[in-house]
Amino acid sequence: MMPVVVRPRRKTESGKKYKVVDLETGKVVAESDRYRNALLHAKIRNLHFLRKRITWYKGEPGVWVTTRTGKRVFIPLDKYLKKFGIPRKWVQGMKIRSKGRGRGLGKGRGRGPIGIPKGELGRGVNLTKPLQAFRTEWLFDGEWVPSVLITLKGRGCQHNKCVFCYYSKYRYPEVTDDQILRQIETALKENKGVEGVVLYTNGSFTDDVEIPPELRERIFDLLESYNIKRLLVESRADKPLSHTLELARKHNIELQVALGVEVASSLIRNRILRKNLTNQQIERAIHEIRRAKFEPRVYLLLKPPYVKEREAVNQLVEAVDWLSSLGVRTFDINVARPHPKAKLFWAMYQAGKWKLPQPRDLAKVVAHVLNKGLYVDVYTFREFGAQDEDTMKLIRRAVNTQSVEPLQQFLTSQKKEV
Fold this sequence. Notes:
alpha/beta, eight-stranded mixed sheet, single chain, three-stranded antiparallel sheet, 22% strand, 418 residues, globular, 13 helices
């Protein structure tokens, strides 16, 4: 089986108007009087071929094909999709096999899907380009600022124990400091003219293993050379923050440090979610950031595993009250998301022991934050929004305007129903 193409029949040939031809043998494998039908047949056939043959070669996904002369040729994935007219969304989540350890072949351990980071596929990936980098608007001090979001191919989270987290599984321990710096520079070159940078390491920017102090200094020098005024980085609350804060002050960059607090209860945070962070450590980190005249930002998790819906909402409301009293003004609400790489959480989801929260619960938390005059952003995903798209639109409008007004009528109607 080889890729196929659609060709019109010659007038001297009998049969239907369009034929689908195998590229290797020249054999007609299908035919139709309508070009659209023939083209669809060819796309599906080529997609099946791709699913069976896709592999890694020199750090790039693609397929090996045999030409009519018997020559073996490697076609990169993007070129294959373009050549045969296959929409990229058709291959999202497709598994890629990494065969062998021969010269030039990917040295991956197992398999990984297209469309998500390939950290565990090994050294075959290009370590000078970030996992993702795109222009967006980011919430800094209540304002939506033109920014570039960069997710690095980093060394991975050194904690790597959180039950709900799967980003820490994407690890590139072999990446060098120069390659990390090159990733950031590549993203900045492709997204010039932004004021802010959101820098994700899939771990802690302040961890000296993930981002050594020397590299941290080079990153701040690079950001200053591109006239970046605002920066968001992530950190565990138990990591040393002083060096990062000092660099931000030295380079006159407005810094936000995002801390993963998740819930108010240290029992849930540590015994269930395995964050291993005490309330005292969180408070100490927030005080240190504020003393340096920078902005702490907090991640909260809606409906983590083993926590019922009402308790999940109460946990976030209590966390907002507690943390805002310490001076935190910006909250990111993350809806818990099961993923195959977060094995325990995924097993619960597959067994029906955990269900997605209701949009009304998210609306309550968002409204509580906004009613206190604070700032909020929301991270969710399609399956969540699909439950009640009207409510999700109201939530998005409230977040975009940083105003509780779009949610007022909805929440009032919810109280009446209760």
